[in-house]
Amino acid sequence: MKWTIQWRWRRQKKLNRSFSMDLVLFFILAGAGLFMAVPFVFMISTALKPLDELFLFPPTFFVRSPTLDNFYDLGLIFSNTWVPLSRYMFNTIFVALTGTVGHVILASMAAYPLAKLRLPGGNVLFMIVVLSLMFAPQVTAIPNYLTVSWLGLLDSYWALIFPAIATSLGLFLMKQFMEQIPDALIEAAKIDGASEFRIFWSIVMPMVKPAWLTLIIFSFKGLWGTGSGGQGASFVYSEQLKTMDYAFSQILAGGFYRSGPMAAAALIMMLVPVLIFILTQSSVIQTMSTSGLKD
C-alpha cells in the first residue's frame, strides 16, 4: 500500500511538470555535465599538442595540430632507463589489484559482525572507525611507517598494500549498507542451517553489490596513484619496486622540454580509473542514491 501511494504520487508529480520545465532542467544538467568534462578534454588536448603549442601565450584550449609525438617521446625516455616501463606497469597493477581485493574482502568481513551481530563494544569500535575518517593521510603516515617497519615489510610490495587494506573508509561504507538488510532474512537463513560465513558470502555480499563496487573504484583509484610521494617514496626504496606514478614524476626532473611526455603520462594515469568508473557508474549512482535510507 505504501509503495503504491508513493508510485502514484511520483507519477502524478511527473505528469504535472510542464515540458518547458523539463527543457530547462535538461539544459542545466547538460551545462553542468559539459563544465565537469572541461578538465578531461583539456588534458586530452594537452597530451596531443606539439611542443611549440604547449608554450604558446596566451595558451590555447584545443590543439591545433594534433600529434602522438608526446607518447612516442614517453616511450623513448623509458627505453633508455635500466628499469623498463613494463616493470613499473606490473608493479602498479599488482599493488592496485591486490590492495583493492584485500581491502574489499577485509572491510566486508569486518563490517558484517558490526552490522548484524550483537557484539560487546561494537558501537565503540564503530565510533573509533568513524573518528579515524577525520585524519588526513599525512597524519597516519608515521604510524603506518612504524607498523610496516616492525613487521619487516619495508621495501616490498606489501609496504604499499597493507596500509591500503586497513583503511577505514571501506568498513564504514560496507557497514552502513549491511545495516539495511532485513534481520528476518538472516534469521531465516540460520533456521535453514546456513553458517555465518555462508550467510555472509551467499546472501549479504550479493545484496550489497553496489557498495563494494563503489569501494573498488575508491580503493583502486587511491592505489593507482600511489608512488610519487608519501608511502610510495618512504616505504619503497628499490627502483625495481617503484610504481608508474613515481616513474612518471621523474620525467619532470628532465626540464621544461619534457612537458609533452609529462602530459601524455598524466593522461595515461587518468584513463584507467576513468574507464573503471564508466564500467561501474550505475552501481556508484545506486550507492549514492540509497546511502542513508532505511527499510
UniProtKB/TrEMBL annotation:
GO terms for biological process: transmembrane transport. The keyword Aminoacyl-tRNA synthetase does not apply. InterPro entries: MetI-like (IPR000515), MetI-like_sf (IPR035906). It is found in: Cell membrane. Residues 89-280 form the ABC transmembrane type-1 domain. Keywords: Cell membrane, Membrane, Transmembrane, Transmembrane helix, Transport. GO terms for cellular component: plasma membrane. The chain crosses the membrane at residues 21-48, 88-112, 124-145, 157-178, 199-220, 262-280. Pfam families: BPD_transp_1. It is a multi-pass membrane protein. Belongs to the binding-protein-dependent transport system permease family. This is Carbohydrate ABC transporter membrane protein 2, CUT1 family. It comes from Paenibacillus aquistagni.
